[in-house]
Amino acid sequence: MYDAKSRQKTLKMTITAVFIAILLLEAFIPNIGYITIFPGMPAVTTIPLTVAIYACLMGPKAGATFGLVWGLTSLFRAYTAPNGLVTILLFQNPLICLVPRILSGYLAGLVGKLPLKKKSLAYCLSGITASVTNTLFVILLSALWYGNNSHQLLVALGKISGNLLAVLFVALGANCLLESAFSGIVTPVIASAVNKRLARR
């Protein structure tokens, strides 16, 4: 019994180490985890896919911790290699940078564990959830944080004036659609394959 528990613990640690390594590669190798389409604007990120797959395999609590790791790498990048003023204004703020990532991993884990007949559907929804949660909470927290002092952020987003919430939805909405489609399609493919492999052990 002890050996079985020990093997299971070792397996979980190995999976976590592998996924953290993948996350670090995505975070710090150009155009793997963050793909810049419009210079100066937040990049399209493939990392929600990695978060969703890990959360599907390990559950919501582990997913939240993994989301925190993602948030910390984002915070580090924002201070050391920002790709524009928008990144500086949004992601050098720990609240905006960390909370959406943590929630992304947690909610993706919850959705991935839904008792659906087709597990691949739960994984698909998990991938979409990871992307949408991250984008939605970045937008909402940014709007709340800047409030009436939004002029600098609006200028960085290419607007002299306007409703910050609406501008953020337009600016980040396209990224969210691309990320959600990518994560929703790829997450069930990889998560299903990995789960089948783990079930044989």
From TrEMBL:
Molecular functions (GO terms): transmembrane transporter activity
Keywords from the named record: Membrane, Transmembrane, Transmembrane helix
Pfam families named among the record's database cross-references: ECF_trnsprt (PF12822)
Taxonomy, superkingdom: Bacteria
UniProt keyword DNA-binding present: no
InterPro entries: ECF_trnsprt_substrate-spec (IPR024529)
Gene3D superfamilies referenced in this protein's UniProt entry, alphabetically: 1.10.1760.20
Membrane-traversing stretches: 12-29, 121-146, 166-191
Protein's recorded name: ECF transporter S component
